[in-house]
Amino acid sequence: MIEEKGILFILSGPSGVGKGTVRKELFNRKPDLKYSISMTTRNRRTGETDGIDYFYKSKEEFEELVEQGQLLEYAKYVNNYYGTPRAYVEETLAAGHDVFLEIEVQGALQVKENFPEGVFIFLFPPSLVELKNRIVNRGTETTELVLNRLKEARKEIEMMDAYDYVVVNDQVELAVSKVQSIIQSEHLKRERIEKQYKKLLEDEME
Amino acid sequence: MIEEKGILFILSGPSGVGKGTVRKELFNRKPDLKYSISMTTRNRRTGETDGIDYFYKSKEEFEELVEQGQLLEYAKYVNNYYGTPRAYVEETLAAGHDVFLEIEVQGALQVKENFPEGVFIFLFPPSLVELKNRIVNRGTETTELVLNRLKEARKEIEMMDAYDYVVVNDQVELAVSKVQSIIQSEHLKRERIEKQYKKLLEDEME
């Protein structure tokens, strides 16, 4: 048998592009993927479980882990830290499971620095006009915020350089199928499996 | 709209691995692919059409084209030349269609030299034991030939280095789906489409 390590897939893209929707539909299809569990300093809410919803840490513990390089990325929102713990990702990959991370562009770029062997997928809006409409329709933003978001999106799209793949989110179903193709074909890359195959060959020829 | 050039996909692998079966099943699924049309010096048979079944050339014409670098690969069988004309491939790609070529390993390595931007897929036998059985069951080989084929297969498998992807042909349906994933995900590679996207962005922002 061929034993293979898992692959870390990172789905990212500008705000409003529909990352969460694509991720939900992908997981509805029951793929052979583990969702990356985040670490946070915010309080555990009723119904949440440590190690399932989040890994809960104190601010001091979190900062110590950051210091030790134990976070693939992190950010502070509303006085709490949120981040991706390296240990969970590495242990899951070593056990042969793929890990899937859906994240903002800034976070993805941090992951790229700390874990360049990940496969980075950029979710692209069908057009910036539609991106604008989507943000407006969320109804949670003022016009000024929308304009700032657009400006930000422009910068984020220029960050496409750091990614391996680009998927247009024109239809969610189609975008999810494309992400699934990327996941499957990455496992077929020669450089990933060459060593295992050469070993298989040696065993057969003896 | 984003205009994209087609991609040349090369399916290859050791003899007996089932390249032809995978190619037939792939085309049964009506993919958006043009099959590469070969050039030959053998006589046109009843029912065959020039430019559909083959491009038919005289020996002199063929050798002239080889001289001019107009063949991506070629070989001589039973006193006739067979090869892949560069012009047909390049014109088809320029028109935005993918081209699919199923070919022996030696031919694939020639294509790799002459057209390195192709995507090279290596079809791998589930095991060399099964490869041996398949060759025997074809019933067209003597034992000595089988042993030679196996020796050759070993060499061919070591040629895997030249390929981008490796697909195990344990089940034809599964192998075909994997090839389809590779075709789809290659179109999603960032470096292929970055320029077009940046242009799209500029148009939208004006």
UniProtKB/TrEMBL annotation, chains A, B:
GO terms for cellular component: cytosol. InterPro entries: GK/Ca_channel_bsu, Guanylate_kin-like_dom, Guanylate_kinase, Guanylate_kinase_CS, P-loop_NTPase. CDD domains: GMPK. Keywords: ATP-binding, Cytoplasm, Kinase, Nucleotide-binding, Transferase. Residues 6-184 form the Guanylate kinase-like domain. The keyword Endoplasmic reticulum does not apply. It catalyses: GMP + ATP = GDP + ADP. ATP binds at G13, P14, S15, G16, V17, G18, K19, G20. It holds the Pfam family Guanylate_kin. Its main location: cytoplasm. Signal peptide: none annotated. One of its GO terms (molecular function) is GMP kinase activity. It is found in: Cytoplasm. Its EC number is 2.7.4.8. HAMAP family: Guanylate_kinase. Essential for recycling GMP and indirectly, cGMP. Belongs to the guanylate kinase family. This is Guanylate kinase. The lineage of its organism: Bacteria, Bacillati, Bacillota, Bacilli, Bacillales.
